[in-house]
Write a structure and sequence with these properties.
By secondary structure, this protein is mainly beta. The chain folds into three domains: 121 residues, Factor Xa Inhibitor, CATH 4.10.410; 86 residues, Elongation Factor Tu (Ef-tu), domain 3, CATH 2.40.30.180; 81 residues, Ubiquitin-activating enzyme E1, FCCH domain (Elongation Factor Tu (Ef-tu), domain 3), CATH 2.40.30.180. It is 10% helix and 42% strand. Strand 15 and strand 16 form a beta hairpin. The longest helix is centred in the N-terminal third of the chain and has 13 residues.
Length: 310
């Protein structure tokens, strides 16, 4: 695999399985919005504003050019050329090695205009997954514990909550908050908490829906079960909304081969990388180019036909 993209992966979904699996094809070097005039995202530098750029400049039905590199391996070469020449429609995702931190939280208050105000500056970005909890009373009417919401950021201390990521990104209909609740309200975000580990079946159970797909890169933070290490990239194997295995490579995740876990320690979080998942039709591609000894470069144009995901 080419090193130029520094780990920004281009993956293709396989809708024939349930749940869908995402296989890594190659690495991305740049992303450019088709008709917009904003600068190209350089996938090799992980610019700080790439998430804002994607959510605001590449909406549904937009067109985007994606440049990818790969080594001239015969099997991958045939696959990539097949995509370029076939006008392929499907589901794809781009995974950045931009890891969410361990789970963090903060107190909040809520108003009946659906605005959530945090007690201190939050680190949420629009589209981030979050949850809410309460102690000493009841959550604001309209909100429920152990439910996944998505942030629509207004300021460093204010936001709205949405039922879907697409609604948050496009400023759709927010969750209807009809009361302020009682007691202390807490909003939790970023890392996915682990509730238990079964070292007989290798199944990791999360404290709430993890929203991961098979093949998606993740890391672990905290004190993980034996067999896992912090700072290492693993790949999710989705079993259900709250259970998964982890694999050492994307190919092993696709094959359903889990890591052998040798104890039941559950004092860790799973931290996914940032992902842009989209449905698209390939609308055109340049002729792949390369110089002797170099990776092959292909620029393709994709017509976005489904919801974007960050």
């Amino acid at each position: 695999m080419a090193n130029a993209a520094q780990g920004t992966l281009f993956q293709i979904g396989d809708a024939s399985g349930s749940p869908e699996k995402y296989a890594t094809l190659t690495e991305v070097t740049s992303i450019t919005g088709g008709s917009v005039t904003n600068p190209t995202i350089d996938a090799t530098t992980l610019e700080n504003d790439w998430r804002t750029y994607i959510s605001s400049k590449l909406p549904d039905a937009g067109e985007v050019a994606i440049s990818v590199n790969w080594e001239p391996d015969s099997s991958l070469h045939a696959t990539m050329i097949g995509l370029a020449e076939g006008g392929t429609a499907g589901t794809y995702q781009i995974c950045w090695p931009d890891w969410m931190p361990a789970e963090t939280s903060g107190t909040f208050t809520a108003a009946t205009n659906d605005i959530v105000t945090t007690g201190s500056a939050h680190s949420l970005a629009t589209g981030d997954m979050c949850r809410v909890s309460n102690s000493g009373g009841a959550l604001p009417a309209g909100l429920a514990a152990s439910t996944t919401y998505y942030a629509g950021v207004i300021s460093s201390t204010t936001l709205k909550l949405y039922a879907t990521q697409a609604a948050a990104i496009t400023t759709g209909t927010a969750v209807d908050i009809t009361g302020t609740g009682t007691g202390t309200h807490t909003i939790h975000y970023d890392g996915i908490g682990v509730a238990s580990v079964d070292n007989g079946t290798e199944i990791i159970t999360t404290s709430y829906p993890h929203e991961l797909v098979t093949g998606q890169p993740v890391r672990v933070v905290g004190t993980p079960a034996a067999g896992l290490s912090t700072g290492t990239t693993y790949y999710a194997i989705r079993l259900s909304a709250t259970t998964l295995w982890l694999a050492t490579t994307n190919a092993l995740a696709i094959a359903g081969t889990a890591i052998n876990l040798t104890d039941t320690a559950a004092t860790f979080d799973i931290t996914p990388g940032r992902v842009w998942r989209f449905e698209a039709n390939l609308t055109g591609a340049n002729d792949p180019t390369s110089a002797p000894g170099e990776q092959i470069t292909l620029e393709t144009s994709w017509k976005i036909t489904g919801s974007i995901t960050l």
